[in-house]
Design goal:
InterPro entries: MctB (IPR021522)
Radius of gyration: 36 Å
Pfam family, one: MctB
Strand content: 5-15%
Protein name: Channel-forming protein
Number of helices: 2
Distance between the termini: 85 Å
GO biological process, one term: copper ion homeostasis
Largest sheet: 2 strands, parallel
Shape: elongated
Strand order of the largest sheet: 1-2
């Protein structure tokens, strides 16, 4: 039969081994894990900055295209639809601003919007 002293010694050895495992494991793996996480964080930060710059460049390009359309659009369509009547077909996902812009361009071209036909989902 196991004596109380042997039981206490084996229990102390188990706790000592557990403590050593925690200390050694956290010491060896924490540096590796933290290094990996720092590297990953740096890579993600770099990717965020790169994508932000790309987004800003695309916004500038879109703004330039919009300005071009505003300045040149009326000259391009000038008198292209004089005396013509136009029907606009509107899809369910069309925005009111888009319909107004198309109507404006038709007016600049000399045409008149006589009707707007709206499609439904069904």
């Amino acid at each position: 039969m196991i004596s109380l002293r042997q039981h206490a010694v084996s229990l102390a050895a188990v706790f000592l081994a557990l403590a050593m495992g925690v200390v050694l494991g956290s010491g060896f793996f924490s540096d590796t894990l933290l290094s990996s996480l720092r590297s990953e964080k740096w890579d993600l930060s770099t990717q965020i900055y790169r994508l932000t710059d790309q987004r800003d460049a695309l916004r500038e390009t879109l703004s330039a295209a919009d300005n071009f359309d505003i300045q040149v659009g009326s000259r391009i369509v000038h008198d292209a639809l004089v005396g013509k009547s136009v029907v606009i077909f509107r899809t369910p996902d069309a925005h009111d601003d888009d319909i107004a812009a198309v109507s404006k361009i038709v007016g600049q071209a000399g045409g008149a919007v006589t009707a707007t036909v709206s499609f439904t989902q069904e």
